Fold these 4 entries.
Entry 1:
Amino acid sequence: MPFELPENLHPDCGPVAWLLGRWGGRGHGDYPTIDKFEYGQELVFTHDGRPFFHYFSRAWIVDENGVKIREAAQEAGFLRCKPGGQVELVLSHNTGFVEVWYGEAGDGKLDVTTDAVVRTETAKEYTGGRRLYGNVEGDLLYAFDMAAMGQPLQPHLWARLVRQ
């Protein structure tokens, strides 16, 4: 699907402009404290001319044939763009935590690492992460490394999503 830059794109958002729109596909998950799983996912990045994107993601667990078994994670937030490809990401999750991320964008890549994680009383123990998003052959590939449940930072999720 072709992608066109919006006329009102804020200049600081140029390095992440390729993310704009709706993405969908499947991914895989693994972690020492979680059984392997597959999931479907939808990501949406929108922009209104100011130096940030609004972000929303929803996921659902699927079986080996891609049939939905149950709902899974949701997250929403803002990707805040600064001059020179520097970014801030603020995310809130249905599982009871909020994160602040910092990183860089450029050359079809977004690389962010957590600076702060705050959890509610009922949230599982999660202490930090790293996310890498890349534009590969027009698709959105990403990987999420996580430190949680007493485990060190290590791979947790990875997916390939296509523009919808």
Entry 2:
Amino acid sequence: MKYALIKTFGVTALAAAVAACGGGDSSSDSTASTGSMSVGLTDAPVDGVSEVNIVVTGLVLQPADGERVSLTLEEPANLNLLDLQGGAVEALVTSEDVPAGDYSWMRLQLGEQSEFSVLTDEGGVENLRVPSGDQRGLQTSGFVVPAGGEVSFTIDFDVRKSLVYPPGQDQYLLKPVLRLVDNSEVGTLVGEVDYATLNQDETLGCNYEGAVYVYTGTVTEENLTDLNVTLTGDEAETQPLVVVPVNQDGGDSLYSYIAAFLPAGEYTVSYSCQIDDNEASDDLTFVGTQQVTIEAGETTTAATIPSD
């Protein structure tokens, strides 16, 4: 079976970001009929592949009340989503005037899927397709463009959750998982994992360098779940918001990670060095579970895993 392993946040899976110029005050011109918006693309990390190539041709905005707005890029953006990790953003639209008001969603418009591909770590090139029934999955939640102001959003196109290779298929499928955040309301989480020490603990069953799981709110270690578990209601908080791989930056045993574009608030962070294949529920062992607080515009450093 082919699978996408967990690597770093940015494409934690396949990720996309929409950025608009940050956080303006609409009170200075309440009668204005337009606002300024910029759009970019970011990605959350994924393992097992070195490239996830797509083509973006534009954006479609759906006002809560009014005609759809189409923004066509001057040139199609040929993107390797894995280049957009660790908070990197690809600008798609910059300081674009659009009608002010409430919007129901924003949708990424894709180019010819014959140009989509996945390059595996072994060097093989695989086809990549977005099933027709999942095209609507390329749209985000609602947002507001302030009259006479500027606004900044990021669409996180979570590749780790989106990229699958179903049994019996001869190609990867992209089943989009997107989240939209306001750039003025998000922060960044960084930390380190002492993988050399953890790898000596046979009870953990380490089979690769592992990844850090980030959950919204306070979740006890016994309730932590993997990527494939689908939960609803209050239990949805026990599914990871993002999963980011750890990366060896130097010659020592400390591996680092970064999770960007996290809305301000309380989070539970934990680590597993077992493979999560995103195609079946896995009985993962977690270690180093801790609570962190993310503040808007700030970088929070988590305690080293395992703690002293």
Entry 3:
Amino acid sequence: MSKDPSHPNIVLILADNLGWGELGCYGGGALRGAPTPRIDDFSTEGLLLHNFNVESDCVPTRSALMTGRHPIRTGCRQSVPAGFPQGLTAWEKTLPECLKQRGYATAHHGKWHLGDIPGRYPSDRGFDEWFGIPRTTDESQFTSAVGFDAEVAELPYIMKGIAGQDSENVCVYDLDKRRLIDEMLVDKSKDWLSRQAAAEVPFFLYHPLVHLHFPTLPHPDFERTTGNGEFADSMAEMDYRVGQLLDHIDDIGVRENTVVIFASDNGPEFRPPYRGTAGPWSGTYHTAMEGSLRVPFIIRWPGKVPKNVTSNETVHVTDIFTTILAMTGAEKPLDRPIDGIDQTKFLQNPASERSERDGFLFYIKDELRAVKWKHWKLHLVWEPKVNQSSGKLESPYLFNIMRDPKEETDILAYNTWVLQPMMRLRANFEKSLKNDPAPPDPLKNM
């Protein structure tokens, strides 16, 4: 472990499909049928962001987190089925690869979803070791599905790997293992953290949870504990698992020099019966609504980030890459555009510092859907619910999302001045794309 303040340990916990409105500290918790006391307490130990923004679904957000680059640049534009090309190209420089150059030990325990072939597993991309699933968790339903044929469809596996060695299958990922996997992941992370506490090196743990991705099924120990169904039981388990990691950080004596970040990869699921909530915001993931963009984010850094503070300043998932590198003194890649902005000053002094970011462009796949600038949101394509798109808009819709969080009243006619900074933001980004062409979409012409 590291006790050197210039080499803080980093623990990054990422929930899956956790909507803005699910946790107690974001207005949910007991109101959603499952109190979340551990994460709620954790939120009082640091800074909680109300305006943390991500990409449209699992793969784009995870690629942005690992590279500090918008997925339109990396080619990781969408989640794709098993058996199709997917993941980060070898050219991309990942967060753990950058941290390794700074002397960090690195581990990944959880859902990867950025490559499922040799050369693209976590242990090939900067992690010393990994354990989890290479793609996503709805695959746990495969072997129980009517008519499933293992000769034409890939079996899903829980896997493990060590850098410099071939990754290997551990067991088939089925519905029984779906209920057990978050417990397995916590056990792996606790063991790895204990080993790092005995070493003289700083560490980076990336722990992408499986909860609350569908099928949202709790561990047997949590079944029927809330009385409000399996989704609520799973939320209670997720809160408990996060608490286990936080307790272990305390138990091994590394709390004071460890940055702990908890966030979600995207907004809530839209499919019943696993549909979640984004609280006051409209929409789910796979849309450009605020309910897709905004997700929970909490950071604790003892002595550096103030306790029990909230902020509505805009932060983007790409910023986490750049900010972690700045916190640790690691160098960011200089041979490519990096979209993430260093937010360290803001995070350490949110009362008087402003976010370094005014806005960003929001793509779904390769289509620019919306532009967000300060408290304004411009929709170029209108799809308030998944599969209910009206296509490109002749006249875009403009919303003030502070005054109109549901994005219900278009006010462009009264505020055309806002188009100036938004179109400037768009022009500058698109100019940079011309000098940094993205890899082709492998599914576009299929």
Entry 4:
Amino acid sequence: MKAHSPHSGPHQPAFRRQEPDARRLALIEACARVLARLGAAGASVRAIAVEAGVSPGLVSHYFSGIEALVAATYAHVEDKVNEAIDEAVNAAGQNPRARLDAFVMASFAPAIADPQLLATWIAFWSLVTARPAIAAQHDEQYSGSRARLEALLGDCGVPAERQRRDAIAVSALVDGLWLELCLSPGCFSAEEAGAIARRFLDTLI
């Protein structure tokens, strides 16, 4: 899920002729790579500056501190995942069950069931209990995802009084399958994960 920024030549400034938004994005992508490789404990301004090929001062120019950069990176990674899921749902057409299946199955696609993306998420999760801003982002992300799932379940005829709990159950199943698929991809396939999830959806609808 991460995008790689171009490498500059050995004697060229890393951000020559780049627009400010591109510079900010390159720092966010560098932060994501550092988080995946070193974890939250290794994500310092210096480490991210080295990864991006810039001075620590340039990082400080765009972000007030490491916490602000990590928060921006969390939001960026979340947006990329949501974009991939939205694309899958939109490609499924107008059939409610097809759209629900697409929402669930998107988590098992290679772009999301990716060990490096998992490493980045683990770094974020490790900060949830320690940093209120990250905890708030996590709660907002989970609530938004669950609300989308509730709406898809409702479109499939699940009664309103069941939608919240059913969405929590589906989310927990999908998250567990996604986690195991990232950690141990040889144990079962994305197709098997999808079949398990669809069978569970059959019991709800």
